[in-house]
């Protein structure tokens, strides 16, 4: 946590008192964004720079070639309705045109809406040119009744869902996804949301994990051996399922959302990453912008409640970023992509402008002195890898 002395210095420089609410924070930092707006990318952009790639020639487990990807939560109307569909298709085409070739979606995102929208782009592309991942664990059924407690999906598709981590449910889920997207194969399949943080499950997540251990895990291993998929793993918001899965199986990759960002990364560095490094397994970082907070949204990790320590840390980091002529989104994206354990980051986007800003952020040359100052002020971990 940032010290009170450093926080007060940052607050004074920005004209902020010691008591903060989320809207006041955003207003004072001048980053409060209405839906779909873009935080300006600051710094020296090299337009000739290429997006980073992985050397996959000696990998024991599957890892995607492309280190910059696109998450599909927003395409499922996460938090906001995106209408008409053309706006999302423009965003997807902008992603493709900018060089993004790693796309992640899920049946849960908008209850099939994200997968179908991704299909509007990907079904017309050469399947060998991109990496595609989706998830299993929820089976969708059509219904004329609106789904109650539909998480954050605005105007979602007319489906209900049930949890199903059995072998048969897993294979059906993969087949349903292929039909919705309109493609012949998936590269990665993640077992989705097996975590005590999943409010639908709570402590029952262990019951569902046991179901997956007998069903989804051996079935995905079989599908990998058959060549139907290239790799499988877990897509989770807490690390609980990582160690449990390694005790009983040999996954390839983990999609870790909300677990590695410039604001919150110590546990991943000290515990999760070393555990995976020993097995040559990699991580795809979901929500590298903490659910939009680091891009100027009034939400943190999918919640409108922004923890006070995160507000304080953000203030202190923002002051240092401004001093070095860069913005927090740029720093956050490059920080999340830096570790060798990380094989890709998948920030989401709603508009073509957001895509272009994210791409520009990956091509900014961040001064080494910025990272040194963050470590000196104990705002990031001393052992945190930094971009080179």
Write the layout of secondary structure elements.
Elements: H1 4-14, H2 22-29, E1 70-71, H3 85-98, E2 102-104, H4 113-122, E3 131-136, E4 138-142, E5 159-163, H5 167-181, E6 188-192, H6 205-214, H7 216-226, E7 231-236, H8 240-248, E8 253-257, H9 266-277, E9 282-286, H10 308-323, H11 328-337, E10 342-346, H12 352-362, H13 368-376
Parallel strand pairs: 1-2, 2-3, 3-6, 6-7, 7-8, 8-9, 9-10
Antiparallel strand pairs: 4-5
Question: Would you mind describing this structure in some detail?
Answer:
The chain is α/β, with parallel strands linked by helices and 388 residues long. The chain has one domain (4-376): TIM Barrel (Alpha-Beta Barrel). The chain contains 13 helices and 10 strands. An 8-stranded parallel sheet has the order 1-2-3-6-7-8-9-10. It is globular and about 55 Å long. The two termini are 25 Å apart. Residues 1-36 have low confidence and may be disordered.
For this entry, give a set of tags.
single chain, 388 residues, alpha/beta, TIM Barrel, 38% helix, globular
* Model regions low in confidence, pLDDT < 50 over at least 5 residues: 1-36
Strand content: 5-15%
What structural class do the secondary elements suggest?
Answer: alpha/beta
How would you write the strand order of the largest sheet? 1-2-3-6-7-8-9-10
Classify the fold: give the CATH topology: TIM Barrel
**Main sheet specs:** 8 strands, parallel
Helix percentage: 25-40%
The average pLDDT is 89
Count of distinct structural domains: 1
From the spread of the alpha carbons, the general shape counts as globular
Note the run of SSEs as H and E.
Answer: HHEHEHEEEHEHHEHEHEHHEHH
Tell me the name of the CATH homologous superfamily: NADP-dependent oxidoreductase domain
CATH class: Alpha Beta
- Would you report the number of β strands? 10
- Number of continuous helical runs: 13
């Amino acid at each position: 946590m940032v010290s009170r002395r450093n926080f007060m210095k940052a607050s004074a420089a920005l004209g902020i008192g010691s008591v903060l609410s989320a809207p006041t924070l955003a207003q004072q930092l001048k980053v409060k964004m209405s839906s779909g707006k873009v935080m300006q990318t600051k710094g020296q952009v090299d337009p000739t720079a290429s997006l980073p790639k992985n050397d996959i020639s000696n990998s024991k487990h599957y890892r995607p070639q492309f280190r910059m990807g696109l998450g599909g939560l927003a395409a499922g109307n996460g938090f906001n309705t995106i209408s008409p569909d053309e706006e999302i298709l423009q965003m997807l085409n902008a992603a493709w045109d900018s060089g993004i070739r790693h796309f992640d979606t899920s049946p849960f995102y908008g209850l099939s809406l994200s997968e179908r929208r991704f299909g509007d782009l990907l079904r017309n592309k050469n399947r060998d040119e991109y990496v595609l991942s989706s998830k299993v664990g929820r089976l969708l059924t059509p219904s004329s009744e609106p789904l109650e407690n539909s998480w954050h999906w605005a105007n979602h598709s007319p489906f209900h869902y049930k949890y199903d981590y059995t072998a048969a449910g897993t294979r059906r889920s993969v087949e349903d996804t292929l039909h919705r997207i309109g493609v012949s194969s998936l590269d990665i399949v993640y077992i989705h949301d097996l975590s005590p943080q999943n409010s639908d499950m709570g402590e029952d997540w262990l019951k569902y994990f046991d179901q997956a251990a007998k069903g989804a895990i051996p079935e995905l291993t079989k599908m990998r051996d058959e060549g139907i998929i290239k790799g499988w793993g877990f897509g989770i918001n807490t690390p609980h399922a990582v160690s449990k899965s390694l005790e009983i199986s040999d996954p390839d990759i983990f999609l870790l959302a909300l677990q590695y960002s410039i604001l919150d990364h110590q546990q991943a560095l000290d515990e999760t990453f070393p555990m995976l490094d020993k097995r040559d397994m990699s991580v795809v970082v979901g929500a590298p912008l903490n659910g939009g907070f680091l891009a100027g949204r009034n939400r943190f990790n999918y919640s409108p409640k922004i923890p006070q320590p995160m507000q304080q840390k953000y203030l202190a980091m923002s002051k240092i970023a401004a001093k070095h002529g860069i913005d927090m989104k740029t720093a956050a994206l490059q920080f999340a992509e830096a570790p060798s354990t990380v094989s890709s980051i998948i920030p989401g986007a709603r508009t073509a402008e957001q895509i272009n800003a994210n791409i520009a952020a990956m091509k900014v040359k961040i001064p080494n002195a910025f990272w040194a100052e963050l470590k000196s002020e104990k705002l990031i971990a001393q052992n945190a890898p930094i971009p080179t």
